[in-house]
Amino acid sequence: MRPRAREEDIALLVPSRGTTGVRRGAVHPFSAMNVTWRRPEEGALGDFPAGITTLAVSPLAGNAGEVTLMLLRQGCTALLMDDFDPGRVLATVEAERITSVYLLSEHLRQLVAHPDIGRTDLSSLRYVPYGNSPVPADTVRRAIEVFGPVLTQNYLSCEIRAISLLRQEDHLAAVSGRPELLRSVGRVLPEVEIQVRGPGDEPLPQGRCGEIWLRAPHMMSGYWREPAQTARVLRGGWLHSGDRGRLDGEGYLYLTGRA
């Protein structure tokens, strides 16, 4: 079929989690999706051949749905689970030779703590992104032990679907002498601009904590039917994320809380 959608048409309406305020819907046009889905930083994600199978263990309205769509576009197969059950997830990965599974942070914690983790064949996994909230460093170390060098951590929001990435090689470096990296959300992606600003909106020097301001071609166009709130967070082409953090000398971003 010939596509009828235009670049400026709405592709996604992403609901915020609403943990620090009213739940809202962030509007993303097709032009933003074209940037978000072109992700060479994530290694072989865009090169998976047909025959690869991904397992969706959380609602498709969230991040798992986008990972599933990206892989379906490559000709891969998707298996869907109604509810997350760690024992059933492990058994399915082994039985179906699952290659990819997106995990919420709590799901990752439950999996590595499950008694079946040490006696399940997880060798088919090649790509295991996780995120949505901080994960204790001990949990990530254990995940690297059991899953191997396949983990990536994503920092994103409903307003910008891809901000930074803690890559597979960063995870390996963390367990090989750089444990501080496990407290980071990785380096900002090439298409994302970032500034850390103080209470007077002044840019702060490297290492100082402040509010994270972001600008990217794949930002939301605004909140659904909420022009006042859109104007509050989108100012001068920058998104006021509401997150606090700092950047180190190598460009790694560390989140410290909410503004």
TrEMBL record:
GO terms for molecular function: CoA-ligase activity. Residues 4-224 form the AMP-dependent synthetase/ligase domain. Signal peptide: none annotated. Coiled coil: none annotated. It holds the Pfam family AMP-binding. The keyword Transport does not apply. Keywords: Ligase. Belongs to the ATP-dependent AMP-binding enzyme family. This is AMP-dependent synthetase/ligase domain-containing protein. It comes from Streptomyces haneummycinicus.
